[in-house]
Write a structure and sequence with these properties.
single chain; D-Maltodextrin-Binding Protein, domain 2; eleven-stranded mixed β-sheet; alpha/beta
Length: 353
């Protein structure tokens, strides 16, 4: 009886319950201990109470657009009053450099880091972010999460054109059409978008040779390159050239609403993680960091991301505008390991220094 009481205490049940468990698990003369049920994850509201007791503050190192900063951060603070955000906004490479410098100085200031896939991989490789298990991540496909981060938004490289420079009925129907000699001196792109080469090689053709051959023929049309996707979209609006073949899909709807003479091709495109969330090792506000991470990838948080003009990573949350291509050639975490090789090929094809 003494042993039964001890077992009851360990299992958190009464002696009668313990006897029932023992009876149910007595099989073929042997006692088989039943696996304990997984602990139910605490709710966001329970985590919110912990975050307030912790100090009610969270420091974010996130690369966000101005629109996202204006929409997402206030929505979080409205949802969780008493938890204030200190957001340091910069490009992801500068955020990485800032955090590394702070670490070398013996300080950890930020709680949360977020950026595109290459920077998340860099942070994980340098062991600067902790492994995280977020219940909300169960809904996400494998290519949009890892043991260290979960995607918050995605972005797609697509073809787009100026409707004043491309006649109706002559629009390109896919990337292969851009190899036609009729588009000579009509194409422009972003010089760092080697992801397009990876997406077509691995997801569309399953062949490096076919993708390389296509881009060599596109390069023969004397592509003009401009750094910065926002600038690239503005040049398309202005008619700098007729066609952009590495534009971001989400840059089209807001400009078209203002009357810009541009049109996206949404039958196919290359997709990647545009932003992800992670918790920094040694975060000064771990509960607030976890609260942000779980909320950001939840359906609730992802609907806010959509309102901010982002393309949500959550498969059950649609963007406000149609920006996801019908055929989306998504890059994966493993693809990131080959970025240097494809970047070299891309630069060789287009003779980019």
């Amino acid at each position: 009886m003494k042993n039964r009481k001890s077992l009851a205490r360990r299992l958190g049940i009464g002696v009668t319950g313990c006897l029932l468990v023992a009876a149910l698990t007595l099989i073929a003369g042997r006692v088989v201990f039943a696996a304990s049920a997984p602990a139910k994850p605490e709710s966001l509201d329970e985590l919110y109470e912990k975050a307030k007791k912790e100090g009610g503050k969270i420091n974010l190192y996130l690369a966000l657009s101005q629109r996202s900063t204006e929409v997402i951060l206030p929505a979080f603070m409205k949802r969780f009053p008493g938890v204030t955000i200190d957001h340091f906004d910069a490009t992801a490479d500068k955020l990485v450099a800032r955090h590394v410098a702070e670490m070398r100085g013996g300080r950890v200031i930020a709680d949360v880091f977020g950026g595109a896939l290459p920077y998340m991989a860099q942070m994980a490789e340098q062991k600067l972010i902790d492994p995280i298990v977020l219940p909300e991540a169960a809904a996400y496909p494998a290519q949009l999460k890892s043991e260290h981060w979960v995607a918050t938004d995605t972005q797609f490289y697509i073809i787009g054109w100026n409707t004043q420079l491309v006649k109706k009925g002559e629009e390109p129907k896919g990337f292969e059409d851009l190899a036609s000699a009729k588009w000579k001196t009509a194409l422009m792109g972003e010089p760092r978008d080697y992801q397009l080469l990876i997406g077509l090689a691995k997801r569309k053709y399953n062949s490096d040779d076919r993708a390389i051959d296509l881009f060599k023929r596109i390069a023969a049309n004397q592509v003009e390159f401009h750094r910065g996707h926002s600038q690239l979209a503005e040049f398309l609006v202005a008619g700098q050239r007729a066609i952009c073949f590495t534009c971001y899909a989400h840059h089209f709807p807001p400009r078209m609403k203002k009357g810009a003479p541009i049109q996206p091709l949404l039958t196919e495109g290359v997709g990647e993680v545009g932003g992800a969330v992670s918790i920094l090792k040694g975060a000064p506000h771990p509960n607030a960091a976890l609260l942000w991470a779980r909320w950001a990838i939840s359906e609730e948080g992802q609907r806010v991301y959509a309102r901010a003009g982002e393309t949500p990573a959550h498969p059950n949350v649609e963007p406000v505008e149609k920006v996801r291509p019908t055929a989306a050639y998504m890059l994966t975490l493993d693809d990131g390991k080959e970025f240097p090789r494809y970047e070299k090929l891309w630069k060789e094809i287009f003779q980019i220094r």
